[in-house]
Each structure stands twice: as C-alpha cells, then as structure tokens.
Design a protein that fits this description.
The structure is a single chain. It contains one helix and two strands. The protein has a domain of 36 residues. The protein is largely without helices or strands and 78 residues long.
C-alpha cells in the first residue's frame, strides 16, 4: 500500500505549525511555543513544562465511558 505512513509519522494538515515567541513563566528563558500565548496564563520552556505538567488541573471533562468492561450493571435484573 503506497502513500500510507506508519510509525510516528503524522500527516501534515495545513503545513508546518506556526511557532510563537514566549518567555518562560518560571525561569524567564526565551522559548518558542506552538500556540499564541494568552495573557494571564503561564507559558513554560520545555524543561519547566516537564516539571509542571503534573500540576495541571484535573477538572477537565472526561470523554471516557462511565464504568468498565469488568463492572456489572446493577440496574439490569435477570
């Protein structure tokens, strides 16, 4: 099958990503990020991001199905 990509290659939708200049909120280093920084929200360089990535809020909506494959549904009667 020609033309298909496998492995870590991702198709490019719209060409290369535009990088924006930013200043790291932690260490003050100049960095580039793949989004336009929003005033009032911290931006981190690669090293500081690794330190902070577990600090992100967990109140984001979950798109996973409720319950698991191993759980039984008590609402069904036999």
């Amino acid at each position: 099958m020609e033309g298909r990509r496998y492995g870590n290659s991702r198709p490019s939708f719209g060409g290369p990503r535009e990088m924006c200049d930013a200043t790291c909120s932690d260490c003050g280093a100049q960095t580039k990020v793949p989004f336009k920084p929003i005033e009032g929200r911290p931006v981190y360089c690669r090293d500081c991001y690794q330190k902070h990535k577990n600090d992100r809020p967990t109140n984001r909506p979950s798109f996973r199905r409720e319950g698991g494959d191993n759980e039984s549904d008590d609402s069904q009667e036999e």
